[in-house]
Amino acid sequence: MKYRETRITHNRKLNKERELRDLVSVGPAMERDLRTLGVRNTAQLAKCRPEALYEKLNRLRGKRQDPCCLDVFTAAIAQAKNPALAKEKCVWWYWSRVRKARSKG
Known about the structure:
Strand content: under 5%
Radius of gyration: 16 Å
Shape: globular
Number of strands: 0
Largest sheet: none
Number of helices: 6
Order of helices and strands: HHHHHH
Structural class: mainly alpha
Helix content: 55-70%
Number of domains: 1
């Protein structure tokens, strides 16, 4: 019986963990980019800085990536840190507006 209880507890924990693709704005291409950057799950992602991921991706690709990649990283990290994040903050274009407003001011 102890084995069964342990298995049930483990399965419940797994069901609560979100996959990278569960995050809004993370599609197949961004998931591949995150994995290329060494990020395998949302727990790892929550510890990352979007700017660091963006700069590393630029270096790996050998050219500057579209700044929207930075916005997707920002949205994904915000969701990884806060599963209850407001829906409007889950989309990358919210973070695009924030980034552009910061660069103006």
